[in-house]
Amino acid sequence: MTHRARRNAQLRLARRPGRVRVRETPPDSPWWRRINFAGWATGIGAAVGIGTLMFTGVATYYGARVAEEQLQQSREEAERSMRSQAAQVAYWVEETQGPTRIHFANQSPNPISEVLLEFYLAEIRTEAGKRPIYERVNFFVTLESVAPCAEVTFDARDMKRHPDSGMPVKLAHLDGSFTVRYAAFKDREGSYWVRDDTGLARAKSKSEAFLANLVRPTAPAGTVTREWSGSVKSRPTEKPARACEATTTPGL
Question: Would you say 244 and 147 are in contact if contact means Cβ atoms under 8 Å apart?
């Protein structure tokens, strides 16, 4: 076979379908030619994509947390603003060597209205050979309004007990202690509030506020109960409240 014929036969073999000749990189070629740059690029791209997704997820999570905290903070600020005036209304009992006094104070720079204050005087009397007697006089005091930075005082000497029959009598024969059950009132925004020994709460309506403590206090076990209604003079003493600073214009 001639040289030309052998070469044509090699060309025909090389061109047969399905046969691919792989060109190998000589072992003595430079090191950078032996690196699979396409594979590396694919791996780096996948890692960057995963990192981007993780960053996006973390950013979304913390963004939602921040938004939730801001919403909660806004709610708390709105609640504090709503309670700002009601939180400055208080009552207390003053028991000194002199007559007992019930104090009700509006320490806010705005008036309150439709005030209901309930308190009672109670004591236990004992007699030889008889069951102890629990005597209680209940007082329901209403005030049309209380001025800004004002304190109203109810003096025990101005209180009377209404017996089952006859004229009201003073409380001279009772030597018990006073307890304030609760106070209900309306703030400058028209919302009704109730304050008692458990704290301050907003009422849904006037009727709910005024009937907040409809259940009467129970008498001590083993006693006989005598209960009367009481009254105070038409308008108690009113004076400027202590530690009260008007920071806004009344009525705003």
Answer: no
